[in-house]
Amino acid sequence: MSAPSDKTLVIIPTYNELENLPLIVGRVRAAEPKVHILIVDDNSPDGTGKAADALAHDDANIFVLHREGKGGLCGAYVAGFRWGLERDYQVLCEMDADGSHAPEQLHLLLSQIDAGADLVIGSRYVPGGEVVNWPKNRWVLSKGGNIYISLALGAGLSDMTAGYRAFRRAVLEAIDLDELSNAGYIFQVDMAWRVVQAGFDVREVPITFTEREIGESKLDGSFVKDSLMEVTKWGLNHRKNQITELVTTFSGQLGHEIKKWRKKHYL
């Protein structure tokens, strides 16, 4: 009997990753020869798209999806998810092109999928996880932000901003991809939160996150404030809904007990 991971698609979004792309693709092919790779390029002006086409030409397990203009990471992943779902892949993975997500650790995510998980997150902040080549202030910002997010949403996850993930196709089919937030990198939190709320089995495995050595980060510092404000709104709405459900349940039970008491006493 085949395992879900036997039909896995690794989605790698790119924008100006000409030097990094052949390196990360080569590492994926060496680490997990059976998986297929989809490169989603946002019309990179440095020629990354053409390099992706050349890689696909030489390897039948590599595919390229070209998008018009720089549409953002969320849009690239959503396009990749839809492409993979249309082609009946059973597991779809997110992986950065810059080498920060080690392909050599992909097996950790896939093994948990095969063990029954619906979404597996490669986490920097569970025991065994670590970050390499980050300045202390960035680590504190990321770690602190994830603690805040966990407390605000009560999701029980340590690294909801992480971008190294493996999904069963059933998860992506159940989530409304059109509704994902596209405010910076907050969509990763948005998606994990939706999956948790839907009742799927979400697990974290420790990974080593290594800061890119080639090229510049696409991360805009302004996303932190905007992202945490958005998460705060979600958390408040969630708590409000919890309280409303609690009051409704309590009121219903109280009304039932009053009816029983009135009936018992012939009132």
UniProtKB/TrEMBL annotation:
Signal sequence, renumbered to the chain: none
Gene3D superfamilies listed in its UniProt record: Spore Coat Polysaccharide Biosynthesis Protein SpsA, Chain A
InterPro entries named in the record: DPM1-like, Glyco_trans_2-like, Nucleotide-diphossugar_trans
Similarity annotation: Belongs to the glycosyltransferase 2 family.
Enzyme class: transferase
Every Glycosyltransferase 2-like domain range: 10-174
This protein's name: Dolichol-phosphate mannosyltransferase
Pfam families for the chain: Glycos_transf_2
GO MF terms held by the record: dolichyl-phosphate beta-D-mannosyltransferase activity
Keywords: Glycosyltransferase, Transferase
EC number: 2.4.1.83
